[in-house]
């Protein structure tokens, strides 16, 4: 199967169709520039058609026995397992992900599909007492109806599947808009998996388009009740503002400026390993990546020497080569932006222990120290292979530096004393933090999300039920109420 020829279409109401827009989104391989597909964009009219199809299909889907609904996810899991090699190739081609990255993404996708099988049976009602004699209070968990999902380019298959599968398992229908740089892995491929798994037409719709064409139509449309968005905090703020005007709930998974804190009693070699992966996995294009590595001054020299040596040994090149650690960024604009940020922070006084280069989409690693916190770049998210090493004296200073950011997504603490690490971790204002591990983790049943500018709400596990269902109170008077008049 050639995914880039078969799936480069809109998927609306169970039909693969060409968009009616006046221009095309061209899908390129970010490593070699090869044209993978050309997709005529969806218009506002097709956004409406997708939402109306979802609205019609959702009613019957929600009424289906949840044991029957979960069979779709059992089949979807088998399909992903059977096509794993082909999907991995597509991720490498469209996203520029290394072999290790593609394998990791597929592993997590399968775990989320396994969790979706369970989610179909998760919603539970309650019977609550009443102060009124003869009154019975029933609280039902019901689907919200239709969910709009906007997924990013860095882990497109995973971050589409995560919200889509959960929302559908809980009885909703979905309209998915993938990022325009990853329309197949983030959109068409998701639709194909569920189509082949027997999902009824209209329950999942995929629209491939751009805000230059549709504006806010995807968010403003009256049908969706929840918008699940993963992307930058700048766009996330806009999504939240527009959605609030329509009384829609939002789940926002946004950017990060995560800190890995290495205390004076840490295992230095292990902390170096964790820091290298936490920063440079998928070229640093991960919201949970360690933007800042904070190191106790007593071990700064040892850590820095070992860290720099490891970074210099990373292989930059073709993501299809299993020996490659760092492949391309998603596009040349992103690469140029990273290069500009490095130039600015160095001009503001930082020292580059390793100075990367920018050639097209290929950006080699940069390691910075002596960073000026007054730099206009300090505190921003480096969505690329750039890391700052920051020394500190004692836990209090480490905590102050870690919390001096508008973000709060992930983090890590390395120490020889686990409870010391937990005490410090609880003081870091972040949604997720890991003791003696990396900063990049996502597990299907553990609440995932950030604080401050890193987002609103949580995904995964029981949090999915909160996101994609609503409660309904039905009271029953078995006796007779005495009315005041």
Overview of the molecule:
39% of the residues lie in helices and 21% in strands. It has helices spanning 3-6, 44-63, 66-82, 84-95, 99-119, 156-169, 184-196, 211-214, 217-220, 233-245, 268-280, 300-312, 332-347, 394-403, 418-427, 462-468; strands at 10-12, 15-17, 24-28, 35-40, 126-128, 135-143, 146-150, 173-177, 204-206, 226-230, 249-253, 258-262, 290-296, 351-354, 358-359, 362-363, 366-369, 386-392, 407-408, 411-414, 434-435, 451-452, 455-456, 469-477. It is α/β, with parallel strands linked by helices. Strands 14-17-18-13-12-20-21 form a seven-stranded mixed sheet, sandwiched between helices. A six-stranded mixed sheet has the order 9-8-7-10-11-23, with helices on both faces. Strands 5-6-24 form a three-stranded antiparallel sheet.
Helix and strand layout, with pairings?
Layout lengths: L2 H4 L3 E3 L2 E3 L6 E5 L6 E6 L3 H20 L2 H17 L1 H12 L3 H21 L6 E3 L6 E9 L2 E5 L5 H14 L3 E5 L6 H13 L7 E3 L4 H4 L2 H4 L5 E5 L2 H13 L3 E5 L4 E5 L5 H13 L9 E7 L3 H13 L19 H16 L3 E4 L3 E2 L2 E2 L2 E4 L16 E7 L1 H10 L3 E2 L2 E4 L3 H10 L6 E2 L15 E2 L2 E2 L5 H7 E9 L8
Parallel strand pairs: 7-8, 7-10, 8-9, 10-11, 12-13, 12-20, 13-18, 17-18, 20-21
Antiparallel strand pairs: 1-2, 3-4, 5-6, 6-24, 11-23, 14-17, 15-16, 19-22
Helix pairs in contact: 3-5, 4-5, 5-6, 6-7, 11-12
- In helices, the fraction of residues equals 25-40%
Widest sheet, order of strands: 14-17-18-13-12-20-21
Per DSSP, what share of the residues sits in E-state strands of 2 or more residues?
15-25%
> Runs with pLDDT <50, length 5+?
none
* Shape category: globular
Q: Please compute the radius of gyration using only Cα atoms.
A: 24 Å
Biggest sheet statistics: 7 strands, mixed
Q: For the record, give the distance between the C-alpha atoms at the N and C termini, rounded to a whole number.
A: 72 Å
Tell me how many strands there are: 24
